[in-house]
């Protein structure tokens, strides 16, 4: 755990240059606008520890699979988010010396990620080996208004000399993914050109053929005024630059304002990329840096209006939650149904692919409550569009008749994960995808979605489950063999309770949805039945038979659900008995030892209880929580938030807060020692859930909002906003009072601690807080 970033309510602040942590700070200071993003790299040359990272949404490369031992059914490719052209580069030479913070003496260094207005600023004084001193103030952002562009204002002031400064802004497309399987480069050059203070590189990805034009255009200011200058073009492979030599005076700032854009063939015809990039840059240059930044701040302000969580009395927690919300918004805006949320977003390469079950299980609830319902809908439609591929994927593994197995990791619908115990066995992902449909419809009331898209996905998934189970003569029940539950520290287990429970639920839900569509729109049902070759009688009979006869492991004496058949044979030890030096076990223990141990990587039975809590009484939840929690090592960032929500439900405020803390500042404090690879974007939605569903106790049942809020002990108050069917509500909780403001929308009714609360339009209701012990 590290503690070098300053606590502040709205900013992430690094004071003094922490070279050894630079890659961590780069991850944390990543910028994004849903269409493109990049790590918090330096604009000028840096030869120290750094991971240069620029990403363009939706642009990927299928890297040939590399495994030690090939297994039939493995996908041939692993689609990777591509590290793309570096557009932030500005080479700075001072009288022939290159400005490089790795070689210079650095003082007054400050790097600030301003989350309120959405920009990154870096200020420092550098003393070069020659003794020359310069002061730099660099500010940049990825515009959320002009979302294919970014802008940089780079100000450099000589402090102890008058002399020559050479500035060379460039676009460098000669980039390699750090995680390339065969050390190959994934981009080819198509075209490059330069003009005065302007340059473009057009590149194409190998195999996938995505074209991206990255362009730059810049202006230079001295004494606050744009100056005339001469720029010398430079070209190299996949590289364009314009070199400008300037004379600078001591204590007078020279400011280079660079505008850049990334236009991709995902959004434009290939033939139009270059002319459009030129027009784009001309337009934003005319708008100007200050105006763009002003618009950026305004748009962020409107996002915070509906997204913000305010915590009084704990600055570290406030910073933590805002950081999570900020990164979620930078990663996915929901405007484009082809995009999704990668576990690292635009902050690093790890995990390749872009879509995991994380999206449905963790991110959808966040977007449902904080964004227009179209955003969550787009995420669902994304899976609907990939249904054909999910059916092919299942066919490849021997399933038939429209059974669909969604991939564990994907870019375009094809599986790109290749560890047999996950690719073939971690099939619970299908459950989360079905659940997200339920979640969306339950939250928004948009039942039309079911007939339009939902049914087909639910049917494909139900068909898969019905074929994946088998009848056990011994048990006289259906069983599900050879699976990996969410707890990846057990593989190839039989009857993982979570997966089996989910399978049954999916079939039940499909039948319920079918009945609804039949009743409301029988013609559409007929259409869907013929589209999907549904043999309703036979197929539904089988689903119902499985629903009635599925084996779900339970230990009656302990009163718990069994994570899997053999769980109780394990030596049951508590995590508290594990020596600290042996943790995290995934870095310290051999894999077989982990598999045989009782230690649970992430919520498994408890993940199921989280999804289906209304199916169980409080005692059952408590018994399972008391049994499994002490064996959970939380070595997945997705885990603590689920435990936080369950602890809150059980009234264990202190534990709930403890779990929340583990996820809220996970990246800011580099809790798991891995932030340098990128931030844990999808688990950030989980942090949000632990506040809203945990401390806020928010649930949606039968189309209505239920709250059961409490304040963690060391906070004075906290408040969160939710959008719910045309209303925007602000819920502010103190120890003794809850204030609920109906900011937008008509009169509505909600439930707080089980009591009905009428909320008049634009008014605030105060409720005496039930004190939890
Ligand atoms: C977790 C998975 C998760 C993946 C990506 C893994 O460590 O075990 O549940 O989908 O990370 O976040």
From TrEMBL:
Which range is the signal sequence, renumbered to this chain?
none
Task: Tell me yes or no: is Glycosyltransferase among this UniProt entry's keywords.
Answer: yes
The biological processes this protein is annotated with in GO are: carbohydrate metabolic process
Q: Which residues belong to any copy of the Glycoside hydrolase family 65 C-terminal domain?
A: 698-759
Using the record's annotation, list all stretches that form the Glycoside hydrolase family 65 N-terminal domain. Answer: 13-265
Q: Name one GO molecular function term.
A: hydrolase activity, hydrolyzing O-glycosyl compounds
What is annotated as the active site?
Answer: 488
Entry EC number(s): 2.4.1.8
Entry keywords, A to Z: Glycosyltransferase, Transferase
For this protein, the record's InterPro entries field holds: 6-hairpin_glycosidase_sf, 6hp_glycosidase-like_sf, Gal_mutarotase_sf_dom, GH65_N, Glyco_hydro_65_C, Glyco_hydro_65_M, Glyco_hydro_65_N, Malt_Pase/Glycosyl_Hdrlase
Which domain of life does the UniProt lineage start with?
A: Bacteria
Q: Which residues form the Glycoside hydrolase family 65 central catalytic domain?
A: 322-689
Residue positions annotated to bind substrate are 357-358, 601-602
> What family classification does the UniProt entry report for this protein?
Belongs to the glycosyl hydrolase 65 family.
NCBIfam families for this protein: PRK13807.1
User: Can you name this protein?
Assistant: Maltose phosphorylase
Give the species: Arcicella rosea
């Amino acid at each position: 755990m590290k503690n070098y970033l300053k606590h502040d309510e709205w900013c992430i602040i690094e004071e003094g240059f922490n070279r050894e942590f630079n890659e961590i700070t780069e991850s944390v200071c990543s910028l994004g606008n849903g269409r493109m993003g990049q790590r918090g790299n330096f604009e000028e040359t840096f030869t120290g520890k750094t991971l240069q990272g620029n990403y363009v949404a939706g642009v990927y490369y299928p890297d040939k699979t590399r495994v030690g031992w090939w297994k039939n059914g493995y996908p041939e490719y692993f689609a990777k988010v591509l590290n793309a052209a570096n557009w932030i580069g500005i080479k700075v030479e001072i009288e022939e010396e290159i400005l490089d913070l790795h070689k210079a003496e650095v003082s007054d260094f400050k790097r600030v990620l301003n989350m309120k207005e959405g920009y990154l600023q870096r200020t420092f004084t550098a003393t070069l080996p020659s003794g020359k001193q310069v002061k730099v103030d660099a500010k940049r952002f990825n515009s959320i208004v002009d979302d294919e562009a970014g802008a940089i204002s780079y100000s450099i002031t000589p402090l102890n000399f008058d002399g020559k400064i050479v500035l060379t802004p460039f676009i460098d497309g000669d980039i390699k993914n750090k995680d390339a399987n065969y050390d190959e480069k994934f981009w080819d050059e198509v075209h490059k050109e330069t003009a005065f203070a302007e340059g473009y590189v057009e590149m194409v990805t190998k195999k996938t053929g995505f074209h991206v034009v990255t362009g730059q255009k810049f202006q230079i200011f001295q004494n606050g005024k744009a100056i005339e200058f001469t720029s010398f073009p430079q070209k190299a492979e996949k590289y364009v630059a314009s070199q400008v030599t300037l004379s600078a005076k001591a204590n007078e700032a020279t400011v280079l304002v660079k505008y850049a854009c990334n236009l991709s063939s995902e959004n434009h015809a290939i033939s139009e990329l270059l002319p459009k990039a030129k027009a784009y840059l001309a337009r934003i240059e005319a708008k100007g840096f200050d105006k763009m930044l002003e618009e950026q701040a305004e748009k962020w302000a409107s996002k915070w209006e509906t997204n913000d969580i305010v915590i009084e009395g704990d600055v570290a927690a406030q910073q933590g939650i805002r950081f999570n919300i900020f990164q979620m918004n930078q990663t996915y805006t929901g405007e484009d149904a082809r995009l999704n949320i990668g576990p690292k977003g635009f902050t690093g390469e790890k995990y390749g692919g872009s879509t995991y079950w994380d999206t449905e299980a963790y991110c959808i609830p966040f977007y449902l409550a904080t964004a227009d319902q179209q955003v969550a809908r787009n995420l669902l439609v994304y899976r609907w569009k990939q249904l054909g591929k999910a059916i092919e994927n299942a066919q490849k593994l021997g399933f038939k008749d429209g059974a669909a197995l969604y991939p564990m990791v994907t870019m375009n619908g094809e599986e790109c994960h290749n560890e047999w115990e996950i690719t073939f066995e971690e099939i619970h992902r299908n459950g989360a995808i079905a659940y997200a449909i339920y979640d969306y419809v339950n939250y928004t009331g948009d039942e039309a979605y079911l007939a339009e898209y939902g049914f087909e996905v639910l049917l494909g998934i139900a068909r898969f489950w019905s074929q994946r189970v088998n009848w056990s003569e011994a048990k006289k029940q259906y069983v599900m063999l050879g699976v990996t539950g969410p707890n990846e520290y057990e593989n190839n287990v039989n009857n993982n309770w979570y997966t089996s429970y989910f399978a049954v639920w999916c079939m039940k839900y499909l039948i319920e949805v079918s009945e609804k569509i039949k009743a409301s729109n029988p013609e559409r049902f007929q259409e869907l039945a013929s589209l999907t070759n549904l043999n309703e009688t036979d197929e539904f009979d089988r689903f119902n038979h499985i629903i009635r006869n599925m084996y779900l492991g339970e230990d009656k004496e302990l009163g718990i659900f069994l994570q899997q058949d053999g769980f109780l044979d394990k030596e049951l030890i508590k995590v508290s008995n594990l020596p600290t030096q042996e943790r995290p076990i995934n870095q310290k223990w051999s894999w077989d030892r982990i598999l045989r141990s009782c230690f649970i990587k992430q919520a498994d039975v408890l993940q199921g209880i989280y999804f289906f809590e209304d199916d169980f009484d409080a005692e059952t939840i408590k018994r399972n929580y008391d049994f499994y929690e002490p064996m959970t090592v939380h070595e997945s960032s997705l885990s603590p938030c689920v435990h936080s929500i369950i602890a809150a439900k059980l009234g264990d405020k202190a534990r709930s807060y403890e779990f929340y803390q583990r996820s809220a500042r996970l990246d800011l404090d580099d809790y798991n020692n891995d932030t340098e690879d990128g931030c844990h974007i999808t688990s950030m939605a989980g942090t949000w859930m632990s506040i809203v569903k945990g401390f806020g106790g928010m649930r949606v049942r039968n189309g209505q909002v239920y709250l059961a809020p409490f304040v963690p002990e060391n906070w004075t108050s906290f408040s969160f906003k939710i959008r719910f069917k045309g209303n925007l509500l602000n819920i502010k909780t103190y120890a003794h009072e809850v204030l609920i403001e109906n900011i937008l929308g008509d009169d509505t009714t909600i439930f707080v601690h089980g009591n009905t609360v009428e909320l008049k339009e634009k008014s605030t209701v105060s409720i005496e807080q039930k004190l939890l012990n």
